[in-house]
Design a protein that fits this description.
single chain; alpha+beta; Thiol Ester Dehydrase, Chain A; 2 domains; two-stranded antiparallel sheet; 26% helix; binds Palmitoyl-CoA; cell projection; fatty acid metabolism; Thioestr_dom
Length: 218
């Protein structure tokens, strides 16, 4: 059994973890971890982040909020588990596989022609002047580019390089179309391209290399 470390920062994998060496050597696909309301939980956490990002509490309200968030964190400390078995990242029925660290996306197409998804940057993904932070745009490209390359090589890949060109501002709170595809597959090397559109307007594009991992490669 995994127990929460006192620090609460990270839970190492157990000997009986499904992780077999390598980076997600076996990609779990689940729809039940965390229960039927886990998606609502993720959405409330995102809402918390949105509200916290733009909040200006009085000192008294800050004191009150610290107590409430500490109580919530204590509750979460009690249910920590390693990365391979957490719902976040494996719940394929939820936006961005239930991973709250990713900009939420919903996939409409995924196969040899690449991946098409609707991505919505949240208010907390703010860069400035109501536009998305460029780093969050790169995170979305990394995940969906990684998915396009994984589908092409039928295995797990890691990002070797990732270049994002920002062509126009990326709006928050707006469903955007992201498309990623493998332009050229050369052995273990998947050269990936991608685009992010707001309607007809190109917000950003991607040029990346993903490398298929060898068995057991970390
Ligand atoms: C089954 C289907 C499931 C589908 C459903 C799954 C969905 C699942 C979605 C998850 C999506 C998550 C996607 C997040 C992906 C990250 O975010 S990964 C995290 C960020 N990346 C890293 O930390 C990588 C750090 N770097 C490394 O680990 C290693 O350098 C690498 C990239 C694995 C490559 O090392 P290596 O395996 O030893 O390969 P190496 O022999 O050095 O190079 C292989 C070839 O690539 C070339 N190369 C390597 N690096 C470079 C570079 N930077 N520039 C140019 N060429 C390069 C080499 O020159 C060599 O070329 P050739 O000589 O063969 O022509």
């Amino acid at each position: 059994m995994t127990s929460s470390p006192e620090s609460g920062w990270a839970v190492p994998a157990d000997a009986d973890s499904p992780h077999e060496g390598g980076f997600r050597a076996r990609m779990d696909i689940t729809t039940d971890r965390g229960g039927p309301r886990y998606g609502e939980f993720s959405e409330e956490i995102r809402r918390l982040m949105d509200l916290a990002r733009y909040a200006c509490p009085t000192p008294e309200i800050t004191d009150e909020l610290i107590d409430q968030v500490r109580a919530l964190n204590k509750r979460l400390e009690d249910v920590q588990i390693d990365e391979w078995r957490s719902p976040a990242g494996t719940r394929i029925d939820l936006p961005a596989r239930g991973n709250i660290t990713l900009p939420p996306y919903e996939i409409s197409e995924g196969g040899p022609d690449g991946v098409v998804a609707s991505v919505t940057f949240r208010p907390f993904h703010l860069g400035g002047n109501d536009a998305a932070h460029g780093g969050h745009v790169a995170v979305a490209f990394d995940d969906l580019g990684g998915m396009a390359s994984a589908l092409a090589v039928q295995g797990i890949t890691r990002t070797a390089y990732l270049t994002v060109s920002y062509r126009s501002l990326t709006p928050l709170r707006t469903p955007l179309r992201m498309h990623t595809w493998v332009e050229n597959l050369d052995g273990r090397k998947a050269f990936v391209k991608g685009t992010l559109h707001d309607g007809d307007r190109l917000c950003a594009d991607l040029d990346a290399l993903f490398i298929a991992l060898k068995p057991g490669q970390p």
